[in-house]
Amino acid sequence: MGGGTSHTQAGEPGQQVPQDGSTDGGPGKEFTLEMLDSVIASDQKATDLPPPPTTEIEFRLVIWTTSGIPLLQQGKTNVKIAVKLECGEYKGNPPALQETDVHMCCTTGNAVFNWRIVYPRIEMPTRSCTMDILCYDHNPEASDTVVGLISFDVQKYAEKV
User: Fold this and answer.
1) In whole angstroms, what is the distance from residue 75 CA to residue 4 CA?
2) Other CB atoms closer than 10 Å to residue 106's CB: what's the count?
3) Which of these ranges, 2-6, 31-35, 42-46, 94-98, has the smallest mean pLDDT?
4) pLDDT, tens digit, for every residue of 37-57?
5) 144-147 contacts at long range (C-beta below 8 A, 24 or more positions apart)
6) CA-to-CA distance for 97 and 95, rounded, in angstroms?
7) Are 109 and 71 in contact (CB under 8 A)?
8) Alpha-carbon distances, residue 88 vs 9, 36, 85, 129 (angstroms)
């Protein structure tokens, strides 16, 4: 072996190597392998490696319908849904609080939305990440009244991605 650094055939610094040995660009692991002559290894400075890139995920929520919403204003409710993400690692442009449109004069408590909420660019790992879904009786002349709330710990789902 000569002096200096040599690399295995599939081990150039930062090279993506498929887990199954294929060349189709499937899932893989990135690695760097340095092999040095043991005589000069103590004199050779180790290669500086950059930190791994940040992994980002995206939450997508589709609000299809509501049912059983209380009727608060003379037998009707103006149904509005809001979703609030509480996650310090959220770096996306859409606001953490996103709202649907308002279904005016809902007389059954059932409203159809087909509304999409997207939270892109959540950096992993997260320390804490919760999603609150609130249902309001919207009142354009006064403040909205909360008629329902559920809170999800979405961190455990994010960790599985």
Assistant:
1) 82
2) 18
3) 2-6
4) 888 888 888 888 888 788 999
5) 144/80, 145/72, 147/69, 147/70, 147/72, 147/77
6) 5
7) yes
8) 42, 43, 9, 8
Q: What is the pTM of this model?
A: 0.70
| Burial (Cβ within 10 Å: 0-12, 13-18, ≥19) of residue 28 | middle
Which of 63, 143, 61, 140 shows the shortest CA–CA distance to 104?
140
Dist CA 118 CA 116 (whole Å): 6
Amino acid at 116: R
* Alpha-carbon distance values, 123 to 71, 146, 155 (Å): 40, 31, 11
Calpha distance 155→140 (Å, rounded): 35
Measured in whole angstroms, the distance separating CA 49 from the mean position of its chain's CA atoms is 27
Contacts of 82 by beta carbon, 8 Å cutoff, 6+ apart: 97, 98, 99, 100, 133, 134, 136
